[in-house]
Amino acid sequence: MSVIVGNGLTHWFGHDLALDNVDLVIDAGEHMAVLGDNGAGKTTLLRILATSLRPTSGTLEIAGLNSHRERRRLRHYLGYVGHALGLYPALTASENLEFFCDLHGTPAPRVREVLETVGLAGAAHRRADQLSRGQQQRLAIARAVLHEPRLLILDEPDASLGADAAELLTSLMHGKTVVLATHDHALANRLCPRTLVLRHGRSVGTATRLHVVK
Amino acid sequence: MNPVRVAIAVARKDLRSEWRTRELVPALAQFIILALLIANFGFQIDSRNANTIVPGVLWLALVFAGLVAFGRTFAAEREQASLEAMLLTPASPVAIFAGKALAALALLVACEAVMLPALALFFGVPIGVDTVMAVLLATVGMAALGCLFSAMVARVRARELLLPLLTLPLWIPFIVAGGQAVQSAMGVSSDYEEAIGLLIDFDILFVVLTSLAARFVLDE
């Protein structure tokens, strides 16, 4: 069953075409990597999939729901890690997550569980601005999986994560539908059986793991 | 999702951040004291004219402190990209807006707690319950409007310029009614109840209107 069905997704920022007529079908439980150079349109596509950005034209259905009209219902369903981490620097790691528990209606004990999963249990009471860049990235990932979403949209989640990035992401992605943008072809190949390649906002096709390796 | 729980969580988060960083309130309190000092020297205020001039000084200082306070309400969220994270939760945008407005209201009330005693100290005017009531009632509506426009301009580059241009005209009813109420409280005129009634009407009107508009401003 297809979880994401996008047809003709196009987005203009003023006079700049960021995404040009991209079609996309992703099945439940599938992991798909989005590859491309800087400015290829990866972040724009992921923000559209995360319902953070409305496409200028084209249609997008997620889990059978229209991504614009029913975006509030969809937000239980998806978790997003963006380029900018969106943390509150003066709050501790656990306070950051407790705040988002209140917004999601998730029970507070989940915070401890998620912090342990991302390896931040020891830094739970440190302020976000005192964490290293890698720890901040882990905290942003923890926030995205706090409410146990079934669809994960990850924009370069491996940035600053360190050597165990692939292990951490593999454990978090298990059993979920995932769209992951990265510059790291090896990581994409390891985590995602299918790849979408973007160039100048256009899809230049999808490939299986074997094709990317070649 | 319980909207009251969301609003309280947002307000608590903003107040906790301010308590830890002390970015806004100390600067605003300093600004208010300096504004009162300048007025003290600039207007030649004495015991004969204090009750007439001081209400004007109060509203001038409050309006400009409010512009600075509300300007930061959503700008900080945009700079940290945390607004996007907040809006990508199922929480109602109206509840998020209410929480932001509550926190901004609390910060401005904290500044007023510095300003009102300072007014009494510098100008020797009586600051009673009537004056405090008028200022607090005006602050409620001003906070709702200030937060709405702060959310609107947060995504534009010239937000520091746009915020006063949009906000000040709509704050005028509060300044007129509030000024009238404070003058009455200081014994200059005698229509205190009428002015307070107007302030309550404006509060209800603008709190309802801004709550309705907040959904479109934040969600689109």
Total DSSP E strands of chain B: 0
Euclidean distance between termini CA atoms of chain B:
20 Å
- The end-to-end distance of chain A, rounded to whole angstroms, is 29 Å
Average pLDDT confidence of chain B is 90
Largest sheet of chain B: none
For the largest interface, the chains and their residue counts are: A-B, 27 and 23 residues
Write down the overall geometry of chain A.
Answer: globular
Low-confidence stretches of chain A: none
The total of helices of chain B stands at 8
**Oligomeric state of this protein:** heterodimer
- Number-wise, the strands of chain A total 10
Series of H and E elements of chain A: EEEHEEHEHHHEHEHEEH
Average residue pLDDT of chain A: 90
Give the helix/strand class of chain A: alpha/beta
How would you characterize this protein structure?
The complex is a heterodimer of chains A (214) and B (220). Chain A is built from eight helices and ten strands. In chain A, helix 3 crosses helix 4 and helix 4 crosses helix 5. With 214 residues, chain A is of the alpha/beta class. The mean pLDDT of chain A is 90. Chain A is globular, with a radius of gyration of 17 Å. Chain B is mainly alpha-helical and 220 residues long. Chain B has one domain. Chain B is built from eight helices and no strands. In chain B, helix 2 runs parallel beside helix 5. The longest helix of chain B is centred in the first third of the chain and has 31 residues. Chains A and B meet through helix 3 of A and helix 1 and helix 4 of B.
